[in-house]
């Protein structure tokens, strides 16, 4: 038997959740009540944070693409939703790991690369590719998909 530190009821140990191999001091019922009250009080604030974060990430992404180009350098695709930033030297994985180890970051993916590019003054060594060309470059072991590039160059000369 164990006493809940919140409601002071004597309960069996199975009524307490386990943390670090030991039962917590608060029973599951009190813990649920606390989380429900917290979510009611702060749920809207959390949703506002998500909305703000999405808007800030979109703005940062737009700034990066305005600098590096708003269309794919290989095929000319200009749909903003499918554009990506590519490491020209094919060292993206190592660079993302390096960024992930810096203080104040949670992981290598998502908007971290856009933050890093903006913070470092949009350094050279990056280019805009669409998802298709980026995957094709990866599958070709770092070489650009030349058919698309040549077709685009010929199209630009004619037009």
> How many individual helices?
5
Q: What overall form do the CA principal axes indicate?
A: elongated
Number of beta strands: 6
- Termini gap: 83 Å
Word description of this protein:
The chain contains five helices and six strands. With 159 residues, the chain is of the alpha+beta class. The protein has helices at residues 28-68, 92-100, 112-119, 131-139, 146-158; strands at residues 2-3, 10-11, 16-19, 22-27, 83-87, 126-130. A hairpin with a 2-residue loop joins strand 3 (16-19) and strand 4 (22-27). Helix 1 (28-68) packs across helix 3 (112-119). It has a domain at 1-68. The N and C termini lie far apart (83 Å). The strands form three sheets. Strands 1-2 form a two-stranded antiparallel ribbon. Strands 3-4 form a two-stranded antiparallel ribbon. The protein is elongated, with a radius of gyration of 25 Å. The mean pLDDT is 83.
